[in-house]
Amino acid sequence: MTKQVKLSALDLSIVIQGGDAATAIARTVEVAQHIEQLGYTRIWLAEHHNMEYVASSAPTVLIGHVAGKTSHIRVGSGGVMLPNHAPLAVAEQFGTLETLYPGRIDLGLGRAPGTDQLTAMALRRNNLNTAYNFPSDIRELQLYFSDDNAGGRVRAFPGEGLDIPIWILGSSTDSAYLAAEMGLPYAFAAHFAPAQFRAAIALYRQHFKPSAWLEKPYVLACVNVIAADTDEEAHILATSMYRMFLGIVTNTRQPLAPPVPSMEPYWSPEVEAAVKQMTACTFIGNHETLAAQLSRFIGETGIDELMTTSNIYDQGARLKSYRILKEVLS
Questions:
Q1: What is the phi-psi region of residue 265: left when phi exceeds 0, alpha when psi lies from -120 to 50, beta otherwise?
Q2: Distance (Å, rounded) from C-alpha 56 to C-alpha 77?
Q3: Which single residue of 9, 263, 292, 314 has CA 20 to 30 Å from 60?
Q4: pLDDT score of 6 more than 60
Q5: What is the mean pLDDT of residues 70-83?
Q6: CDD domains, from UniProt (predicted)?
Q7: Torsions phi, psi for 128 (to 5 deg)
Q8: Does the pLDDT at position 156 exceed 60?
Q9: How confident is the model at residue 1, as a pLDDT?
């Protein structure tokens, strides 16, 4: 392997066909326990709203649940969509989590709503311009976590004085400039928005300013990985993921479906092209295939950490995929 990188996972608590939100969350917990034993660095949970088959609308609650069911793996948000929340509330929530699970909590922050505009209105009431306050809201959060706020009129308890790493999440170059300017670690959502990935991390590194939190740039890339004993099996397992993205592209979302022998009956050339564009940062195959693909990817991008999301229908195959990936990167 070109470079030794940390290995982590992102989980959206996707509801599978025949399951519900409770089984989706139980699957997330099982993944967290499994990858903790394998030696993964962290598991992040994402904030999504008004999505019938995604059970991660309240990542703060899920983080507490997963952290309570594990012992040492870092658990965090990938991310909290900050414009949906008051910084003080986020500081208190994550301050509480860090108090309960010291040294294990990450706070990844995103600028997007994590939903559609109508739902964003329901979340934000009359404050639809909050996305423009993203940089100042992050600074407000940093102040609440700082000992320097001891004399402030508004303080976060628990929260003040706690070391809770803040990450900037992004899917475009806008977030790269902000992460660089603030001297914070940068996590890019290449698993669904790969188009600007390479440009964004180049800008982040070019403009990075050292800070009290980080001396040099730190890049995490989130990608899709489907690993199995054979390439053929991995590509069949991947049809569940492709059908999920097909549902996103055509706005016909369904629960995560069992794999099928071929995607040909399910998509037109135009839809296939759109799905393949969204999933360009996807790695599918056996141990040897993944080793070659990921060695090239890590070598070309110089990332510091690989975060994987593996939308596989069968839980046993999903856990095995995480194990194979760990072996590949060890």
A1: alpha
A2: 10
A3: 314
A4: yes
A5: 95
A6: Flavin_utilizing_monoxygenases (cd00347)
A7: -75, -10
A8: yes
A9: 43
Name, in order, each residue with C-beta under 8 angstroms of 79's C-beta and a sequence gap of 6 or more: 44, 46, 47, 59, 107, 108, 109, 110, 167, 169, 187
Quickly list DSSP for 202-259. Answer: HHHHHH----SS-SS--EEEEEEEEE-SSHHHHHHHHHHHHHHHHHHHHT---PBPPP
Q: What percent of the chain has pLDDT over 90?
A: 91
The neighbour count for residue 67, using CB atoms within 10 Å, is 22
The CATH homologous superfamily of the domain defined by 6-222+302-323? Luciferase-like domain (3.20.20.30)
The kind and range of the H/E element at 142 are helix 134-145
Distance CA 181, CA 184 (A): 8
SS3 call for 47? coil
Phi first, then psi: give them for residue 246, nearest 5 degrees. Answer: -60, -40
DSSP annotation of 281: S
The domains of the chain are located at 6-222+302-323, 223-301+324-330
Distance CA 128, CA 113 (A): 10
Rounded Cα distance between 228 and 323, Å, is 10
pLDDT digits (tens, 9 = 90+) for 34-60: 999 999 999 999 998 888 999 999 999
Torsion (CA) 67, 68, 72, 77 in degrees, nearest 10? 0
